[in-house]
Amino acid sequence: MKKLLKPLLAIIVLFVIIVVGGSFYMLSYSLLPSHNKGRNEAYMWKLMKHRCPGDSLWLDSLRASHALRDTFVIAADGDRHHAVYLWPNNRKKFNHKVAVLVHGYTDDYISMLPIAHIYYKMGYGIMLPDLHGNGRSDGQEQQMGWKDCKDVRQWIAVATDIFGCEKAEGKRMVPNIVVHGVSMGAATVMCLSGDPLPYNVRCFVEDCGYTSAWDEFSLQLKERFALPDFPLMYSTSALCRLRYGWSFGQASPIRQVAKCQRPMLLIHGDHDTFVPTAMVYELYKAKPAPKCLWVATDARHARSYDKHPGEYARCVSSFVNKYMH
C-alpha cells in the first residue's frame, strides 16, 4: 500500500502543478495578450483607413481639423481612463442625440470611427471611450465587458454633461443616448443593458457580442488547444476571480440582456467563427421585446460594417430613429 501511495501522491502533486501553471498561462493568454494593437494609434489609423476606404477622407478630415477632443476620468479603482468626443459639424443645429461607441478586444476608439461616421451624418454628438487596458486608458487586463460596463456608465454621465445644452429658461437639455458596441464592446453594451440606467439612455446596438466570457473562452480552449473545459476553465476562472474580482461565468451578457427592457438591435456576420453566429440567435431569444436582428451575409467577425457599409448604416439609422426622440 505504501509503495502505491508515493507514486499516487507524486501524480496528484504533478497534476496540481500543471493545472496551477496552466491556469496562470491561460489567464495571461486570455486577458493580457502580448500584442495589443490598440496601444498603437498610428497603426490603428492606417488599419481603419485600409479596412474602410469609404470613410478614409472623413478620417483624414478629423485629424486635419483636430475635431476629436480628449477627455479623461478617474475610475472607481483609481485608474485614469481616456475618451475622445466629437461635436456634429453644425453645433447650432445639434439635435440633442449622442452615440456612445464601445470598441472591441485590444482595439481603441479609432476602431469605432467608421461607425461613428454613421451617427455623425445623422447630426449626433459622439463619445468614444478607450476601455480599461486599451488605447490611452490605464490598466493592463482585458475585462471582457463585465467591469467595462461600469466604466461605460461613467462615460454616459460624461457625455450627458458635455452634450447637455442650456435652454433659454436656464434648464439643461439632456441628450438622448444610444450605446453601440462591437465584439467585446458589444458584450459591454449587453452587460450594461440589464442594469438600471438613466432615462436618457434610449436604446442599444450590439454587433457580434458573445453569450458569456465562459462560452467564448471555452470555445477558444477547444479550437486553439484541443482541451476540454475541465479542469482549466474552472481553475482559470477561479484565478480570475482572485486576481481581478470576477469570474468567467459572471461575465454573462446573455443573463444581462434577458433583463433589458429597452430596445436593442443585434447584428452578427453569418461567417463569424470567432464568436459563432449561433450565439446571436441565443441572445436574440433571451432579449425581451423591443428588439431587432440583422445577420450580415458573408461577414466574418466584426466585419459586418466593412462588408456592407451602406446596409449597415441603413439598418442602424432605421433602428435608432424609432427610439431616439
SSE arrangement:
Blueprint (H helix, E strand, L loop, with lengths): L1 H30 L9 H11 L4 H10 L3 E6 L5 E7 L10 E6 L10 H9 L3 E5 L18 H16 L1 E2 L5 E2 L2 E7 L1 H10 L7 E7 L5 H13 L6 H13 L8 H5 L6 E6 L8 H9 L4 E6 L7 H4 L1 H15 L2
Parallel strand pairs: 3-4, 3-7, 7-8, 8-9, 9-10
Antiparallel strand pairs: 1-2, 2-4, 5-6
Helix pairs in contact: 1-8, 5-6
Protein name: Membrane protein
Organism: Prevotella lacticifex
Keywords: Membrane, Transmembrane, Transmembrane helix
CATH topology of the largest domain: Rossmann fold
CATH architecture of the largest domain: 3-Layer(aba) Sandwich
Radius of gyration: 21 Å
* Sheet with most strands: strand arrangement: 1-2-4-3-7-8-9-10
What is the typical, i.e. mean, pLDDT?
96
Helix content: 40-55%
CATH homologous superfamily grouping of the largest domain: Alpha/Beta hydrolase fold, catalytic domain
Number of helices: 12
Key descriptive features of the protein:
single chain, 325 residues, alpha/beta, Rossmann fold, 2 domains, two-stranded antiparallel ribbon, 10 strands, AB_hydrolase_fold, DNA-binding_regulatory, membrane
